[in-house]
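Section: Multi-chain targets

For targets with more than one molecule, the full set of components is provided together so that the structure can be written out for the assembly as a whole rather than chain by chain. Components appear in the order listed by the source. The example entry contains two components.
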Amino acid sequence: MRLWQLPRVPVIVVVTMLALAGCQTTPSTLPAAEPRPSEACSWPLNDQTPRVVLVGAVAALEADGFLIRHTDLALGLVSAERTRILPGYGDRYDSWDRRGMFGGIGIGGGRGGVSSGVMIGFGGVGSLTRDATQLERVSLLAGAGEVRVSRDIQVIDWRGELAEARSASTADFCQRLRGAIEAGGSR
Amino acid sequence: MSRLLPTLLLALLLTGCATSPPREPPRELDFPFAPEATLRSSAQVLMANGYVVSHADADLGRLEAVFSRWPGYRVLVEVSGEGEQSRVSLTATRGGRPLPPQTLDRLLVEMQDRLGMWR
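Its structure, encoded as tokens over all components, is:
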């Protein structure tokens, strides 16, 4: 077989892959979150001691369903994480598998006729087992005159692969955490 | 034959991926500040960049931060020294493979800025 007689699509794919192989280089600098963490994620410590903020932060995070992973009083650090099941996450992207949990209705045309059918039953085993897990990690640092919060979110799909990863130091989350700390600290 | 050539090309292409990760030396710098202040500034800079500090211990002089972007970044800060002198040693990995030391320069510059700011 001559070269130009090869099937075109695989050849194009291979040539493209070869061309792109050089693109996967290491970055020249460490990545930073884009957009940057919200300004609401750092606030002045004022007259509070880091210890008071840490005690409030541990209570606020635990009340919000977080598991405290680590604390260090000398630095003023709390590190916590929370997992959550996202039901049917896989179905959002697998549109061919979009069937109801309690069966489905189908009409199909074949050679020389049309057939229809109704399927009843608990057919949704696929979507039941395709739940993804969302992992949320938070760290809070209190000291040197300021409190700072950072947070990120990862979604791990039912295959155990990382489906989504994003930095999530959002104003909404930080304001709620700050409010909960200040409410807990004044008690 | 039609399958063989692309398969061979793909195998050639992937051979480069199967090497053991190279060892990178840590990026080191001396700071005229106490080890704890230096370690705290590294935590502040990393968190301001969106990193989440997963572990830090002032007595051990060690801090580990993670960044969730694919394929996963991890930065390890080690601080040694005593009094008003400290030496920072930084290493980073991307998807489990070490990053070259020069990628950490920006982090050190931001730490210097921050230490100069509140001292």
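Chain A touches chain B through 49 residues (CB under 8 Å).
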